[in-house]
Amino acid sequence: MLMPDNFPKKVKLREVGPRDGFQNVEAFIPTAGKLAVIDALATAGAREIEVASFINEKVIPQLADAEAIMAGLAGKKFIRSTLVPTPKYALAAIEAGADQLVVFLSASESHNRANVNRSISESLAGLDTVFSLAADHGVSVLGAIAVSFGCPFEGAVPPDRLLSIAETFRDLGADGVIFGDTTGMATPGPVSRLVKSYQDRFSANDFSLHFHNNRGSAMSNLLAAMQVGATTFDTALGGIGGCPTVPQAAGNLATEDVVCLLHEMGIETGIDLNLLITAARDMEALLGYPLPGQVMKSGPIDWQAGNP
Ligand code: ZN
Asked: What's the CA-to-centroid distance between 45 and ligand 1, angstroms?
């Protein structure tokens, strides 16, 4: 297959299904079921997995078993990443054995307030302590920026604001930044421009792109980002995630769909597609409703089919 030279040879996928996906499932998923999904992902080759949020369990009851999840993953050989909103929860995550913390805020004031009931500067003020706690314990921190490509309340997000939040995260000691397209408003032009301006400003490629597929554009965005050198993406097994009331409508990019495409393009992921498909089908049985992933239904491309 003819490919432009600037596609990466290798891409890293951060698996977010067990956190971003499960938090949108209303009926409580038994801890053992969650652990089975995480284990299957790790066996398939996932090396960085968002396994839980340490967060007020009244806000997201689905993730109330974060400590039990971490206990069930003790000694596992992948990066156990957890979302944390404040220093108190960061400490709980570290004590439970997290290898990586993800702190987050929104690119727009109104979304930040709707999400965590604080202004952006109030959110940033609590982060100093999170970063120093993490540094003391040798735990890495990623800074995630929600609604990076458009806010449901304020519309367009100025790219300069994204870069200045990214700069604040980096100054605090973040090991990377995640740009979240929380509402599925990203399209290839803005994605490509953001990737290039980030690389220009920071001379670094230490960011991940987190695309939701509300409008079917997530895979196009991934391709546009790779064309200008992006190498890390957040994806979710089965394409779970998004809106709790319409679970099949607006998930993340499905990990197995991305792995299938990248392998066909000759780009390495370190993940076994067949194991991933089995994991997605088993998770669909666990959740009990149809998932949006495509390759889990079609199977991988079989170039031998029909041959004698
Ligand atoms: Zn998400």
From this structure: 21
User: For 80-106, what is each residue's pLDDT tens digit?
Assistant: 999 999 999 999 999 999 999 999 999
260 is catalytic: no
Please give the distance, rounded to the nearest whole angstrom, from the Cα atom of residue 18 to the centre of ligand 1: 11
**What pTM does this model have?**
0.94
User: In the predicted model, what is the mean pLDDT of residues 285-306?
Assistant: 93
Tell me, in angstroms, the distance from the centre of ligand 1 to residue 212's CA. 6
CA 304 / ligand 1 centre spacing (Å): 36
Query: Distance (Å, rounded) from C-alpha 9 to C-alpha 11?
Result: 7
d(C-alpha 155, C-alpha 109), whole Å: 12
Burial of 306 (0-12, 13-18, 19+ CB in 10 A): exposed
How many helices and strands in the chain, by DSSP H and E? Answer: 12, 8
The domain locations on the chain are 12-298
Which member of 243, 244, 248, 299 is catalytic?
Answer: 243
CATH number for the domain whose boundaries are 12-298: 3.20.20.70
Confidence of residue 249 (pLDDT cuts 50, 70, 90): low
Ligand 1 centroid from CA 103, angstroms: 13
Are the C-beta atoms of 111 and 148 separated by less than 8 Å? no
Q: Is there a contact between 267 and 286 (Cβ–Cβ < 8 Å)? A: no
Q: Which residue, among 91, 87, 122, has the nearest Cα to 106 in the 3D structure?
A: 122
Maximum CA extent, the chain: 66
Do the beta carbons of residue 192 and residue 229 sit within 8 Å? Answer: no
When the pLDDT of each residue in the chain is averaged and rounded to a whole number, the result is 93
List, in order, residues 6 or more apart from 136 with CB less than 8 Å away.
none
The answer to whether the beta carbons of residues 263 and 11 sit under 8 Å apart is no
* Of 125, 119, 69, nearest in space to 98 by CA: 69
